[in-house]
Write a structure and sequence with these properties.
By secondary structure, this protein is an alpha/beta fold.
Length: 975
């Protein structure tokens, strides 16, 4: 990995406050150089520390041999116009400054300490042919010094940089953390200095942190604003079997085309290389293979999960966030398929002989969700492939619309005809043939039925050789590379979300709450509505996918004047495995360049409209800082699913899969029982096929008589799903999670545990959620594990968060429990997972497991033993009687006692008080309190100082002080 990539990882460590000292120390160790050597290999003596460094409490330095004369080095390092080219500490200038470093000059500079901007007021103490000495003051009473010392050597010039810090914060909490960050920056500065003077080889962009002026609008851009600067696509309609090209080669060609589109040599300068995995050839590290082909082998590598069309947009979203966070300046994203070549080789009786990476080859990071696509019920009835599932969804959409079979087929054929018209104008479309609705809807020898209502021309075409790539940079890097601003397309916002994972368990087959939430998030962040959108590309593997996306977005899907594709869709433009979304982005960019005031949106989805990613783009600069949003949203209740029809049910959807010869193979249907359960059935009985296709069965009752299915006559509504066990709502940054099974005192069964885990996961993923509140409905908090369910063998243990869906891995974000009534057994264990507890004065807590021959093994005994006096903990464990809230409050376990019926209100109020505070302060404060019991007396203060240092030097720290002085509410940025 390149030094820039390592430093980017370091900066992220500081930003998210992962073990700060460990990250900084590791990087600093890598930067400690042996004595520099001449080109002939003989060592260069370490230069002496300049006078004055010992006046400071902490000093660091770095040294390097530069292949240039001392005069050239001095000319560069004393030229303040060129300081951004080499000094890694530099952020920006403040106010007037001289052109050069000269004795007695004074100027103000914004510098980086631990990647956090800090203002330094410099005075030039010395400047001459041997270097310079700067002394100055920083924030919070810190004094700073910076020296550059030069000496001619046979191999060039030995350059030594010294940095020094002093002041109360440096001697105390900031300590070694800040000075180590300076040491890293000095090493980076010497590398940059050598590169500017022609030493060190390799392509390098000299990116500065100065704001960037957008020429067309005059807006001043944050230098870390993500910008899409280059797009490239490759279509190979006729595979070359003389030299079959593998996906990595096609992806590399697309990246070269993207670099040409940007008008700059960006590929070797990449900090990160992303790959959307190919379905036609498997690589352990596809990103690494592509990086090597384009000269970016030193970059970090990232891949999306192996399966899912959401991956392309997800990769762009993630790349943009890395740039916005300052972790990277140049990111390459690509994907490719060679399915047509594989098919041609197969027809020729040959196998692909392409690169095979060593065992264990893997990218540095994998993003996205990878789970089995189907549950047992779906698999058992043959819903194991997208064509059958989407055909079933299509039938449900028709039933919801109340359309006849012929009417609906005509409407979706017209939609696909409009897509084909777009493809006909797309030079990168796999099949640029414009077709009529009649051609698409009518089954023929070349357009066979696949699964009703779909013909072949309504299905994604996966047998293609296609590649697409985009280059995303920071605005500062685009400026440094000389990319013309008329190539810039801004990423305003991205979002990702998932629906109920197994399609058969969804409350409704005709809607996507996840797309609706993600669309609301990106549009809201961009400050626009769906009506403001210009070009739109909705993922179009099948017509049902477009309808789901359009309904969630709030735009018509059947408006001839409103195309919903910029490529032509996955049938005509091509369905390159996981990578269609990059083709959509690559096709959208030129449209937005031509219409700078327009906003465009692309959507990608994976599996059965299961996982989703969206992005909003425009050639106009964003009003808000880019964010990859992961919105938490109220989820509809899941439906239980079975494959047995024991009573009557209402037909929700039907499809008939066909063989390649055109014969009906079976009928597959989804029906809803009066209790809200979904029944999946598959029948290969010709009589059942005839019954369900001879008339419109949708929204009619169905029952089994003997070995046949019988339909009722009347059209009826679908029964609703069973009530959810967990409800959520977002209240201005506070995410309220309510256990809602009052009939069993909110006892947790397996379904409830899964819903609770998902609610907490949603809250943890959404940066807009600051605090969680956990409570119970019906005047009771929770009675613990549902013993009736456990008796049936259904234990409430989830895959990740463990017992009760929470206690194995409690939330990282601050959590408040609002307790009314009883919190017993597992209910008490859930309350113990909270950071703060508000309880009604008549509430009771206890661990009664011993009375049932059980044990509070979901964390209860361990947590009470660490938070209560031993005698009280033993009383709870051994006597097993409930303990009043008032007593536990006196022992410090509870934070507030309130009148009955007011616990939730009080807990939400407490949560809002937490959410009003600086995010970094809250996050690190919680982390220190949680970790402190494991620290020894010797290490405690040092560990606290290490974690606290970035907070004390953060933007929010300065904002808090300024807000106090100006007598106004602070505006936190979380940085």
């Amino acid at each position: 990995m390149s030094p820039r990539s390592r430093f980017s990882q370091l900066k992220q460590g500081a930003r998210v406050l992962a073990p700060v000292v460990t990250q900084l120390a590791r990087t600093a160790v890598r930067r400690v150089r042996p004595p520099a050597a001449t080109s002939g290999g003989s060592p260069v003596d370490e230069l002496h520390a300049p006078p004055g460094t010992t006046d400071y409490a902490r000093q660091v330095h770095a040294q390097r041999l530069v292949d240039a004369s001392p005069e050239a080095v001095v000319d560069l390092v004393t030229d303040l116009d060129r300081t951004p080219e080499w000094l890694a500490l530099h952020v920006a200038w403040r106010g007037e400054r001289p052109a050069r470093i000269e004795p007695g000059a004074e100027f103000v500079q914004q510098i980086k300490l631990m990647d956090i901007p800090a203002q330094a007021r410099w005075r030039v103490a010395e400047a001459g042919p041997d270097g310079f000495a700067l002394r100055g003051t920083g924030p919070m009473g810190i004094t700073v010094g910076l020296w550059c010392t030069l000496r001619a050597t046979p191999g060039g010039t030995a350059v030594r940089l010294d940095g020094a810090l002093d002041g109360s914060p440096v001697r105390g909490p900031v300590g070694m953390t800040a000075v180590r960050s300076v040491e890293v920056a000095l090493g980076e500065s010497l590398d940059a200095l050598a590169a500017v003077l022609g030493t060190g080889g390799g392509a390098r962009l000299h990116v500065t942190d100065e704001p960037v002026v957008h020429e067309r609008t005059g807006d001043l851009l944050d230098p870390s604003t993500p910008v899409l600067v280059g797009v490239g696509q490759v279509v190979q309609r006729r595979p070359d079997l003389g030299r079959p090209r593998e996906p990595a080669e096609l992806a590399a060609e697309a990246l070269r085309a993207a670099a040409a589109d940007a008008g700059a040599e960006l590929l070797p300068a990449a900090d990160l290389v992303y790959a959307v995995p190919s379905a036609s050839w498997t690589y352990g590290n596809q990103a690494g293979a592509v990086a090597g082909l384009v000269g970016a082998s030193g970059a970090g590598t990232v891949q999306t999960s192996p399966y899912g069309g959401d991956g392309a947009q997800l990769a762009v979203n993630d790349a943009a966030q890395r740039i916005a966070d300052g972790e990277a300046h140049v990111v390459l994203v690509s994907g490719a398929e060679a399915g047509a070549t594989i098919a041609a080789l197969d027809r020729a009786g040959r196998a692909a002989d392409w690169a095979r990476q060593p065992d264990g080859a893997a990218p540095d990071r994998v993003i996205g969700i990878d789970r089995p696509a189907n549950n047992e019920a779906e698999t058992s009835v043959g819903l194991g492939a997208p064509i059958y599932v989407y055909a079933l969804l299509e039938s449900a959409l028709r039933g919801e619309a109340g359309s006849s079979v012929d009417e609906h087929r005509q409407r979706i054929a017209e939609l696909w005809a409009r897509h084909s018209a777009v493809a006909a104008k797309n030079p990168y479309a796999w099949d640029p043939t414009e077709r009529t609705a009649a051609e698409i809807a009518t089954a023929s020898a070349d357009n066979r039925r696949v699964s009703d209502p779909y013909t072949k021309l309504m299905c994604a075409n996966l047998q293609v050789d296609l590649a697409a790539a985009v280059i995303v940079t920071s605005a500062a890097a685009a400026r440094a590379a000389g990319v013309p601003q008329d190539r810039w397309v801004f990423l305003h916002a991205g979002a990702s979300a998932t629906d109920e994972w197994f399609v058969s368990e969804r409350a409704d087959l005709t809607s996507s709450p996840a797309i609706a939430a993600a669309a609301g998030a990106v549009l809201g962040h961009a400050g626009i509505t769906a009506a403001d959108l210009g070009p739109i590309d909705l993922y179009s593997c099948f017509p049902a996918a477009v309808q789901l996306g359009a309904r969630a977005l709030g735009v018509p899907w059947d408006d001839p004047a409103r195309p919903l594709s910029v490529t032509g869709g996955l049938t005509s433009a091509g369905g390159p495995g996981n990578n269609y979304g990059l083709h959509a982005v690559a096709s959208l960019a030129p449209i937005l360049r031509a219409d700078p005031d327009a906003y465009g949106l692309t959507s990608s989805l994976g599996w059965y409209a299961t996982k989703h990613a969206l992005g909003v783009y425009s050639s106009s600069p964003p009003a808000r800082r880019y964010r990859h949003l992961k919105p938490a949203f109220p989820r509809p209740p899941a439906r239980p699913v079975t494959t047995e029809l024991t009573d009557t049910a209402v037909v929700e959807a039907v499809t008939v899969p066909y063989s390649r010869r055109g014969a009906a193979e079976a009928v597959v249907l989804s029906a809803i029982t009066p209790s809200g359960e979904r029944v999946l059935l598959r029948s290969e009985n010709p009589a059942d096929v005839a019954t369900l296709t001879g008339t419109d069965p949708l929204r009619r009752r169905i029952r089994r008589e003997g070995d046949r299915l019988v339909l009722g006559d009347e059209r009826v509504e679908l029964p609703p799903p069973p009530p959810a066990s967990v409800h959520t709502r977002l209240d201005d940054g506070v995410f309220v999670v309510t256990l809602d099974r009052p009939a069993v005192r909110n006892a947790v069964d397996l379904r409830t545990a899964r819903e609770l885990e998902r609610a907490v996961d949603d809250a943890e993923a959404d940066p807009g959620v600051r605090v969680l509140v956990l409570t119970g409905a019906g005047g009771t908090f929770c009675a613990g594990m549902d013993l009736a369910g456990a008796h049936r063998g259904e234990f409430p243990v989830t895959d990740r968060r463990g017992p009760l869906g929470l206690t194995g891995e409690p939330p990282v974000k601050p959590t408040v429990a609002a307790v009314e009534g009883a919190a017993l057994a597992g209910g008490f264990e859930l309350a113990l997972c909270a950071d703060l507890v508000v309880a009604a004065d008549d509430a009771v807590f206890g661990l009664p497991e011993a009375k049932r021959g059980l044990l509070a093994a979901a964390g209860g005994l361990w947590r009470v033993a660490t938070r209560l006096p031993r005698a009280v903990a033993l009383e709870l464990a051994l006597v097993a009687d409930p303990v009043p809230a008032t007593r536990l409050a006196g022992l410090g376990l509870l934070n507030a006692i309130v009148p009955p019926g007011t616990a939730l209100e009080a807990a939400i109020g407490l949560a809002h008080r937490i959410a009003a505070n600086a995010p970094l302060s809250v996050s690190v404060g919680k982390r220190i309190v949680d970790a402190a019991p494991g620290w020894s007396a010797e290490e405690g203060f040092a560990r606290q100082s290490e974690l606290a240092s970035p907070v004390l030097l953060s933007d929010d720290a300065r904002e808090g002080v300024a807000a106090f002085a100006e007598k106004r509410a602070p505006r936190w940025s979380g940085r």
